[in-house]
Amino acid sequence: MYRNQRSNGPDVPPLFWALVAVVTLVVVGFLVVLILVLPAPEKGAPPMTSISLPEEEYPAAEAVPTPVPATPAPTPTATPMDPAESLYQLVYDQVDGMEQTLTFTAEGLTQEQVEDVLARVQRRPEFFWLDGYVYYARGDDYEVGCNWKYEDPAACRTQVEEAAAQALAAIPEGAGDYEKALSLHDWLCDHIVYEHSEDGSDQDLYGALVLNRCVCAGYCAAYEYLLNQAGIQAETVRGQADNGTGVESHAWTKLVLEGEIYYTDVTWDDQQDHPNGYNYSWFAVTSDRMAATHFADPTLGAEMTPSSATACNYHYRNGWVLESYSTDDLVRILASQQGDNLTLLAGDDQVYQQVLALLQDGEAAISVLEQAGHPADRYTYYIAEGDLTIDIFPVS
């Protein structure tokens, strides 16, 4: 019987398979030895393929804040100017340009408000050529005809500015508020004569600075104008005053010196019968001192603002105030002064009367003057109604 067998290739001898087994054992053994010889990586160490760089090559990263978009600043909202102030500026500019006919629209303003604006402009000392006005209104539209006091206001303005430049040039170099106000006070007293006129110039800047004759309104117009030019805030107060013989219309000046409010009456200080031509009785006084004889009407000008400052008062500034009566204090005040014009301010009416009583006793007064270093054979003194100042003039 024959068995049929299927063959995939030629028959391999047994010796061949023995040789293959030996070679396989050798290779496997070599690999086992190699694995045992190589060191195992430490726990936590980087893999064999990682590369370590020196520490300084890894600078610490700074935290970069996430940029926050800037919040845009709010757009400032312009505060609308008060309609009356806008109108004032408009009218002011037209008058300053010497326009004799003014036109404007006063939307939202009453007739009373328009008239108040026109009155304020009329009172500005620099517009000395204005002499009233008439106006016509059609709804909110106005036409104002200005009356002119002078035929050629432009030429008059030039003369005023030239005179003002002379007054301002007389201010000492480096002067502060006090020195400026005092210098301008003295300049006006030196250059002006109190005198009425028929043409109305006695009421304004032109009469005061160019013609050098005026009444209280002219003094105030000139003082306010010059102070403003010198950088000092000032305005005119109008009303009445008791001059000792009666109450009459009057004007004086409200000004700001070294941040404080004061009042000055240049007209009353300009005393033609005073040995020096003027004094400082009403220079930079308090509201109470001024109100004792001066009665303001705020509808005509500036109002009286309460003020008790004394640092820029002439007598307080120099230490020449006799607060209470004492011969020693009186001697000290007079000894601190030089020349033949000695002055003091009494703290109140009682002290004032006590000093007057001394001066009426010639022997006692001469003794005080000698103790103060002002020996004299005789003396004169100056007082004015309503004043608390006394000026003494020793005569050898």
What does this structure look like?
The protein is of the alpha+beta class and 396 residues long. It has three domains: 83-148, Ribosomal Protein S8, Chain: A, domain 1 (2-Layer Sandwich), CATH 3.30.1370; 152-318, C8orf32 fold, CATH 3.10.620.30; 319-396, no CATH class. It is 37% helix and 18% strand. The chain has helices at 14-37, 83-96, 111-123, 153-169, 177-191, 205-209, 216-229, 266-269, 287-291, 314-318, 327-335, 349-359, 362-371; strands at residues 101-105, 130-138, 141-148, 193-194, 213-214, 234-242, 247-257, 260-264, 294-296, 321-322, 342-346, 378-382, 389-395. It has a four-stranded antiparallel beta sheet. Strands 10-11-13-12 form a four-stranded mixed beta sheet. A three-stranded antiparallel beta sheet has the order 1-3-2, with helices on one face. Helix 2 crosses helix 3 and helix 5 packs antiparallel against helix 7. The protein is elongated and about 75 Å long. The N and C termini lie far apart (187 Å). Mean pLDDT is 85; it is low at 1-71.
Overall pLDDT: 85
Q: Write down the domain tally.
A: 3
Structural class based on helices, strands and sheet pairing: alpha+beta
How far apart lie the N and C ends?
187 Å
What does the largest sheet look like? 4 strands, antiparallel
Order of helices and strands: HHEHEEHHEHEHEEEHHEHEHEHHEE
Number of strand segments? 13
CATH architecture of the largest domain: Roll
